[in-house]
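Are you able to produce any protein sequence you like plus the matching backbone structure tokens because I've never seen that pairing?
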Amino acid sequence: MALLELKDITRTFVNDQVETKVLKGIDLEIEKGDFVSIMGASGSGKSTLLNIIGCLDRATSGTYVVNGVLVDKLSENELADMRNREMGFVFQSFHLLKNLTARANVELPLIYRGMNGEDRKTRSVKALKRVGLGHRMDHYPKQMSGGEQQRVAIARSIVGDPSFMLADEPTGALDTKNTWNVMELFYELNKQEGITIVMVTHDTQVAHYADKIIWLVDGVIDRIEVVTPDKRNKVRAKAAMVIAEAKAKEKEEIEKGSVTESLTNAQSEKVASQSAATETEGKKPKGKKWSFGKKKSTASKIGEEKTDVAVNIETRDNIEEANKNE
């Protein structure tokens, strides 16, 4: 028995007595461990199909079975419980609560499940570490990049050990580097941990991370494309190159920042030292003749050390004022 079975699924919307048929008889089976992409032009019905698979919407007609359970007959409360226990959701806009930390956001599905605090903490920490965010547990969404926020959302989707994960344009709000990072994470979750993934995307390259692509045209399945290992490996090779280049650039920027900071600190120390020396010279007791030539020589040495020009001028002015006082 397939994990998900959809038979002759239709969905019709009625607005102002005008009927719009979005899905027109979808037959689809998804096995446990599958990675499936759903693609199609705008208005083809892909998001509507995903909503029905995720029990966020009901079909107008047809039957839908999840893990042997006929969804059509479930009440709203039973549907909510099925979503919580059987499914994990990842959306384009993350849907994180801004006033909660990463760990608290990940715990949410477990709170609705009635799990105790200690178990929630253990599971959420494990999920965040799994997506590479063990160091971000106590950070709030505004303190994280878009890629990190999406990884928090992925951790939230897997924290309850769902039967399958649904992803609606999961890379739509991400830059190139983070797009590939997220897709590599999806690939690992599917291939290494056996998590079934159903993903809607508009990006052909992203779609080729899946085992098969469901192409929708005007509410029907036009074709099912099987993704060969060669096609997937080409996309992953490109992703690896982009990620490597991004990491190298980040490392270079960090190193430049460290050098700049060191130079700034060194310059600040020189300026402080010279300011202190100037102050000391200005406090010399009267009766001793100052040699402006010597001070000029000192200023020259300062100049040779490439100290800020403004400091040299200030030092010279202080010396001239002191000689006038003499």
